[in-house]
Amino acid sequence: MKSKIVTADEAVALVRDRDTICCNGFVQSGIPEALLEALERRFLETGSPRNLTLFAAAGQADGKARGTNRLGHEGMLRRVVAGNWGRMPNVVKLAMENKIYAYNLPQGVICQLFRTRASGKPGFFSKVGLHTFVDPRLEGGRVNEITTKDIVKLVEIDGEEWLFYKVGSVDVAFIRGTTADPAGNITMEKEPLFLDNLAQAMAVKNSNGIVIAQVERVAQLGSLNPKLVKVPGILVDCVVVAEKPEHHMMNYGTQYNPALAGEIRVPLDSLKPMPLDARKIIARRAAFELPPNGIVNLGVGVPEGVAAVANEEKITQYITLTSEAGTVGGVLASGSSFGGGVNADAILDQNQQFDFYDGGGLDMACLGMAECDERGNINVSRFGTRLVGCGGFINISQNARSMIFAGTFTAGGLEIAVENDELRILREGDSRKFVKQVKQVSFSGDFSVRRRQPVYFVTERCVFRRGRKGLVLTEVAPGIDIERDILAHMDFEPIIREPVPMDLRIFRPEPMQLESVLLNLDLPERVSYDPARNILFINLEGWYARVKEDVQMLRSLLESRCNSIGKRVGVFINYDGFRINENITDYYVDMDRYMLEHHYTTITRYATSAFMRMKLDQAYSTRNIAPHVFERKEEAQAFLESSVTI
């Protein structure tokens, strides 16, 4: 058998003018730098290949001159379809100057297009992107004025709206692995991620194209464990061994880290806690939303801090953190290693991870927010001529069962201090994030309401949720004045209904004991019985029913107490500061209905919040259960005692 091992120059000589190429990599990780460097050098020396089309899912570059930035020369590219543009300034410049045709599609869509092309289909249907700038009714994912051709089509099937994403042939794939044999079989034992190596190789092979693999080393023919071969040699045309270490770094900030490759596991107490700054305050508040035993995605930037807080609070065993790059479990990495993780349970191919996300596999996601408007729309993708791209944001935010957007209240120079458990704004940020209308819709607030998706907006000084009519201010940090520190720095006025203070533990240096909150360990302490009056007191003040399991835990506790009492009881419930995921309201009310039928004589409720009383009244009245909701504790007790038979 003829060896497939060639030099980088010999391999890139196979790339022709007007070819469509795809390149593996995720942000700064797993990039075949030797191939990109050789292709760039060939163009600069010969002027060829010209007019290439580039498919890049995750903006695989360093934000300067490496990675796909190397293709950002006038004449080298004709068309670019990318998920993340922010790390490719040379390519962005060409797009902004109308020198290339340019599209921004969701990262997951591009990954899935590779797999779709591999199976010979013309495209695929998805709801990802509906009512965002990708929707043809808005911008259709087009980036500049000269780009007019539609590659996304709105269709209706059985009365439901779908987007149809088209795909064509792909001529060249630049993929990357660790070890190859002369037949082109590729293993990835020292790579942090698998990404779309296999899907890209299949897509190109079934397009009659050329697959070029960059590796670190070569093994003897027949010596590779077939279970470790991620890309079989039947799909690979050329193998290039990277001659320079800097061309085969694990990521642009790390030559090699065995923990990121899964070679070793590291003690988690070796990870340093975050300082108590704005980022940690936001991460701590977002961490209160983590669903026990749930599957979670954390975005880049401020949301990365949630992983650090979870580790500091020692609750990582109760949640599964994931990254869109394919990491499942463990502690997610940040910085140049973003996308990978240490002590992971598994690494999936990127397109398969997005299949899981798109199907609703995420219980919660926490992503950044650059702009938010009064409808709860979010923009993270474009700000005038500054093109960042949506990355995996649309796939994740649109399909997570619960959505948290996290970021500082203002941007650019914000300085804060925490003193005596209170937040002080020392210097306000230069730019407002809460604007009348976002410049581009990366997330649709109205569409989230239609899908009954709980959505929260967490900042260092306050928390909003997306209500039916717009943004509702729900929590305010201690020390913050609503008029001075919040409304004065917004371009619109949110709905304000008796906001409560943010939890004081967020603003204290010691750990928050989040485990007890997450697992409802204090729930038994919230239930007490007065035998003299035959009243069961249930204190749900500040309690948050996130998921059905929370309600099940409460029901089991209440049934156990009632069974031990041995007779029906009157029930008195404190709902001050109580919160519930609207999607489980029916489940919660059904619990009360069951308890009334089997254990209670009556239920009396009180809440000092007029809004909470209205919500409780509505929830129970519409389900034909007497609400009995009072404003004052004394009123509720008087009503209950007049109704209870001892």
Protein described:
- With 646 residues, the protein is an alpha/beta fold.
- It has three domains: 5-247, Glutaconate Coenzyme A-transferase, CATH 3.40.1080.10; 273-507, Glutaconate Coenzyme A-transferase, CATH 3.40.1080.10; 520-643, Transcription Regulator spoIIAA.
- It has 16 helices and 42 strands.
- The strands form twelve sheets. Strands 1-15-12-9-2-3-4-5 form an eight-stranded parallel beta sheet, with helices on both faces.
Biggest sheet strand order reads 1-15-12-9-2-3-4-5
* CATH homologous superfamily assignment of the largest domain: Glutaconate Coenzyme A-transferase
Rg (C-alpha, Å):
28 Å
Shape: elongated
Largest pleated sheet: 8 strands, parallel
Count of DSSP helices? 16
Low-pLDDT segments: none
Q: Mind telling me which CATH architecture of the largest domain this is?
A: 3-Layer(aba) Sandwich
Which structural category fits the helices and strands?
Answer: alpha/beta
**Structural domain tally:** 3
**Strands, count:** 42
Q: Estimate the strand proportion.
A: 15-25%
Question: In the CATH hierarchy, what is the class of the largest domain?
Answer: Alpha Beta
CATH topology of the largest domain: Glutaconate Coenzyme A-transferase
The averaged pLDDT comes out at 94
